[in-house]
Amino acid sequence: MHLTITKAEKLKPQPDDSKLGFGSIFTDHMFNMDYNPEKGWHNPRIEPYAPIEMDPATMVLHYGQAIFEGLKAFRTESGDIYLFRPRDNFKRLNRSAHALCIPELDEDFLLDALKQLLVMEKNWIPKAPETSLYIRPTVIAMDPFLGVRASHTYRFFIILSPVGAYYPEGFNPVKIWVTKKHVRAVRGGLGEAKTPGNYAASLYAGEEAHKHGYTQVLWLDGVYQQYVEEVGSMNIFFVIDDELVTPMLNGSILPGITRDSVIALAKMWDLKVTEREISIDEVIDTHSSGKLQEIFGSGTAAVISPVGELKYGDRVITINDGRVGPMANKFFKVITDIQYGRAEDTMGWIELV
Ligand SMILES: Cc1ncc(COP(=O)(O)O)c(C=O)c1O
After folding, report:
1. pTM value?
2. Residues 65-117: pLDDT tens digits?
3. 103 lines ligand 1 (CB under 6 A)
4. What atom in ligand 1 is closest to the CA of residue 261?
5. Which of 11-20, 196-205, 323-332 shows the lowest mean pLDDT across its residues?
6. How far apart are CA 346 and CA 353, in angstroms?
7. Confidence class for position 194, pLDDT limits 50, 70, 90
8. Which terminal residue of the chain has fewer beta carbons within 10 Å of its beta carbon, N or C?
9. How far is it, in rounded angstroms, from Cα 267 to Cα 271?
C-alpha cells in the first residue's frame, strides 16, 4: 500500500515543554486509512490534523463499535526517538479488533506508518525531563446506519499529543476506593479489549471515588465481586511476603504491556512472581497479618502508580505507611530508564524511529 502525504500549510504554535499536561494538545498531522469490504484497508495517508466529518447516524456514535491503543514516543538525551514495545500495542489492537468484529490490520504496516508520522512530527516530541509524545491509534465504525450489527466500513487513525511528566511533584502514592456496587467488565464481556464502552462503564464509580476523596477505583470481578481485577485504568500488583502477585488474565482484565514488562523484569531478577486470583479479603487479611508490603498499579501513562491507602467498606488500610515502596520504585526507575535511553535495553523492548 502506498502512503500519501499532504503537509499542513500552516503549523501550530508549539507549547512550552515544561508546562505540558495530558491529552489536550495535538500535533500538526495525523494518519488516516479507510476500510470497505471491496478494497479492504486502503488509502493510507498522512494529512493535516483535522476533524472527522460524519453522518449523525454513523454507527460508532450509537453502538460504540470502536477500539484504540495508547503508547508513547520518547526523546533520548542523544536525540534518538524511542518507541516502547509498539508491536505489542498493534497486536493488542488486533485482539481488540477481533473482539469487536472489526477487520484485522497489518501490524507491520501500522508500525511503519507510525514511524513515518513520527518522523514528520519529530519537533513535537518534547525535550523536558520525563515528557513524551502520547500516541493514540483508533478504529471507528463508519456506516451511517441505525440497527445493531457490525459496520461494513471503518476509519483507522493515529493522533499524537505531547504530554508532561506524570509525576511533576514527585512519585506519590494514591488513595484507592474499592466498590462492590459497580463493575467495569464481566466474564464473557469486553474487559480484555481496549474499547470505549469499558471506560464509559468506569465513569460513575470513578466520580463516586472522587467525591469521597479517592483518586482511583479498585475494580473487583463482575461475577463474585470478590477478586481484584484492575485499579483505575491500570493493572495491579501486590507485594506479599516478598512475592509479587498480580491477578491472572481472565478475559475481563486488559493485558497491559507495562504489566507484562513488570512480570518479565521480576522473572529476570529471580523474584517470585505469581499470576493468580487474589480476593479483596485476602488483601485485607495479608495487611492485618503484616505481610502486605506494597500495592502498585502499572500502565503506559504513569508507568507505576504506588498505592498508599485503600478503602473497602468501613475499612481503611494504609500500605507501607503511605510511602512509595522499594519494588514500585525499582520498576519505575528501570522501565523509565530503558524508555529514555538512560539504561541499556537488554529486553529488546525499544524500537528506534
Ligand atoms: C483498563 C486498562 N487496564 C490496564 C492498562 C495498562 O495497559 P498498558 O500497560 O498497556 O498501558 C490500561 C492502559 O492502557 C487500561 O486502559
Report:
1. 0.97
2. 999 999 999 999 999 999 999 999 999 999 999 999 999 999 999 999 999 99
3. no
4. 9
5. 11-20
6. 18
7. very high
8. N
9. 6
- In the three-class reduction of DSSP (H, G, I as helix; E, B as strand; rest coil), residue 35 is classed as strand
Distance 242 CA to ligand 1 centre (A): 25
Which residue intervals of the chain are DSSP H helices?
59-63, 86-99, 107-120, 196-200, 203-211, 257-268, 280-288, 326-339
Q: How many angstroms is it from 235 CA to the middle of ligand 1?
A: 6
Count other C-beta atoms under 10 Å from residue 149's C-beta.
Answer: 12
DSSP H/E element including 65: none
Q: What is the pLDDT of residues 280-315, one digit of tens each?
A: 999 999 999 999 999 999 999 999 999 999 999 999
CA 180 to chain centre: 24
Q: State how far Cα 17 lies from the chain centre.
A: 22
The 8-class DSSP code of residue 197 comes to H
Query: Of 151, 153, 145, whose CA–CA distance to 38 is shortest?
Result: 153
**pLDDT score at 18:** 87
